[in-house]
Amino acid sequence: MITASLSMPLVSSLRRLFRNKAILIGAIILAVVLVAAVLAPWVAPYAPNKLSIVNKLKAPSLAHIFGTDEFGRDIFSRAIYAGRISLLVSLGVIIISTVLGVILGVAAGFFRKLDAPISRLLDAMMSFPDILLAIALVAALGPSLTTVILALGITYAPRLARIVRGSTLVLRELPYIEAAVAMGLPTWQILTRHVLLNLASPILVQATFVFASAMLAEASLSFLGVGVSTDMPTWGTMLASGREYMNNAPWLMVFPGLAIVFSVLALQLLGDGLRDLVDPRLAKES
Amino acid sequence: MTDTAKRPVLSVENLTTSFKTAEGWRAVIRDINVEVNAGETVAIVGESGSGKSVTALSTMRLLPAGRARCEGRILLEGRDLLKASEAEMRSVRGGTIGMIFQEPMTSLNPVFTIGNQIAEALVLHRDLSWKAAEAEALRLMERVRIPAAKSRLNEYPHKFSGGMRQRVMIAMALACRPKLLIADEPTTALDVTVQAEILHLLRELQREENMGVLFITHDMGVVAEVADRTLVMFRGDMVETGPTPQIFAAPKAVYTRALLASIPRLGTMGDAAAPRRFPDVDPATGKASDGRVTSPVPGGVTPILKVEKLAVRFALPQGQIHAVEDVSFDLKPGETLALVGESGCGKSTTGRAIMRLVDPSAGSITVDGQDVAKASSGALRAMRRTSQMIFQDPFASLNPRITIGSAIAEPMLAHGLISRREAKERVAELLQQVGLSAAMADRHPHEFSGGQRQRISIARAIALQPKLIVADEAVSALDVSVKAQVSNLLLDLQEQHRLAYLFISHDMAVVERMSHRVAVMFLGEIVEIGPRAAIFDNPQHAYTRRLISAVPIPDPARRGQLNPPLNEEIKSPLRPHGYVPPKRTYREVSPGHFVQEAAA
Predict the structure, then answer these.
(1) Of A30, A93, B369, B415, which alpha carbon lies 20 to 30 A from A255's?
(2) Is A1 a residue whose pLDDT tops 60?
(3) CATH superfamily ID and name for A17-40+71-285
(4) Which chain A residue lies closest to B458 (C-alpha atoms)?
(5) Residue A195 · residue A168 · CB < 8 Å
(6) Which residue ranges run through the membrane (chain A) (predicted)?
(7) Residue B527 is assigned to a structural domain of this protein
(8) Nearest-CA neighbor of B70 among B39, B31, B96?
(9) Mean of the per-residue pLDDT values of chain B
(10) Where is pLDDT greater, at B519 or B260?
(11) In chain A, where are the structural domains located?
């Protein structure tokens, strides 16, 4: 019954979605990056870790369109494989931070008694700079792919929680939520069907911003050497190791850098577009 | 003077306004003709979507230029406003034409004093110095009869009640001695007693200034009270225009007849012992059949709802709001008790306390033998089957993302009354019961009109087969014709299911039709309670009398009988900390009719 009731607005909002240019461009860029990452073994011309001392630090050419690094590895292939890790991290972060953020935010917004303790906790977490908190968490847990995802997920949870809390506070006072209470619906049902369903838009938009931030943060963590271990290329580690050769072989940094720039740009465009799209619709529907 | 008497202040000729839509330009008002002479009030009346506000906005050229297009002529003292430049229009708005709007609460800037805001308009439009402007602001505040104007000049808007703010707005509109005043639903957001005061004030000011007034309203009672001539609009067309007495006495258009037939009027009950249905109006002919009296409540039944010494108080830093204080009443199955009073009197809070949407501070509430006031959340959930609530705003009380079929089925599924398989059938049944079609179950709330949405809310409320329904201003936000239909639906359902209604409303005319008994609330207390006929025919408390006499009568022949203005701020139920409410005593006037005795 719930899915049936959702399908109509979904179809119409998808149609509206692609009328928005920002969303269209963002989606195309992201689709290209995603497809390349998923199909890396077929798309990449070389193995990502294949050494070739003869070809070290070659400038971009037809054989190596992004050039090669100090060990002669093909940067194009490495960038494609790196996308897998970078996107995996971002996706993991988004899931963890959204789940945590929604639970904390809805609890704080809906139950008056929980508001003060949860809000203070969130304030405390947000008083640390993002990267510092993430480094501290990774240091405590030991660096690995899982801990990076976990640490960043926890770091970004307060951002979502705040947005969700604010929206829940507004929703809680709306007559249709009161009506649901007056009808004697169980609290979990009020929260899922009436509160969460109407929070979908702000959560979606905020999540795209976290997605972009997580990608940059993972790069920063890798760059600082507390990220994912170095035998798996990520855009961040590629940047970090390219630093030494910046003057002679700038392509070592330029291409992974561009990959980050474009992915983040795509996500920001998506987030911006979604926000523009969501506002008038909310005004129209409520 | 003689010259202006000959030429109308405003003359709108063949005005057609179109809005740009995805399919091209679409006319929203067509061929409107209206003239306003000096010293005359012309009312534009119609239901929502009739185009009355668009007419006013077109006249002031306040519609967005790219998306709206006006054709025809709008002559202000002979000058065509449609040909005027934007700079010229700026001096017209707030200069030759003054405006007042519906929402006095949001049209004043909260961070400047009242005097400052009035003076600002004077400095801007009349080139006065600040000192002179302040003196003039004081004079204007005295003209709109704001008590203690001199000291109130330096106060901020939040210290002014709705009625006083509307007076300030009128003072600002009058600042530049306009020739024409456009008033767009100026009293709709106000209580009846305040409305009576504002209408009285407008009439006096109009006489003094010899202004033309274009008065936009949906309320035929207000029209009868203020308008010399009336223009009736329906879906963008002018259906009838003429002198107000003629429109009321001999309406020509079918729509006008239907509109007049559906207005709730005071004093139409005769000696009926029970509520009386509103007349069923045939939209094709505009003829009305008189409403049938519903079956009376059988006597001697145990009450379904018993409220005793209920109090709801909210603590604030500066004191305590005694929203509800020492309220007691009971309600029998099949009976309607109306809670009436003005905004802030505690009638909604009482209803919400009975539903346990707010927690009572003291007293007991017994619904069907169970104490609601002290129930745990688990017990409360089960009890919620017995009592249901219908809310005022049909646009906000339905979740926009859930289909209405799903919304109606939801409470029944949650209480385990039906299985998912039976849901569809039961929803179809309920939709038909409230006059909608079963096929509508798959639609979302935004696809329905206000009246239809309220029917959906009613279907959802009766889905659990409750015994008590708290209807909080359930028909107040609806257009007149829809209001009559939805009220009739409520009466029919009451007869079929022996529902008890706690009917919370500020609309005395609807209350008279709908209720068996009436309780009048003032500042959180019941000042008078008794059978409907006793309250309306023999009101004992001064406030009850004031409330009844403030209701505008939709009959131009009885104009000017509204109660004389009091010009006083309604007291607030905010009391200092540690305030102990005085013990109240009630005097029995006739069987079941109690009135609060004045404090010694």
Answers:
(1) A93
(2) no
(3) MetI-like (1.10.3720.10)
(4) A179
(5) yes
(6) 22-44, 85-111, 131-154, 174-191, 203-229, 249-271
(7) no
(8) B31
(9) 85
(10) B519
(11) 17-40+71-285
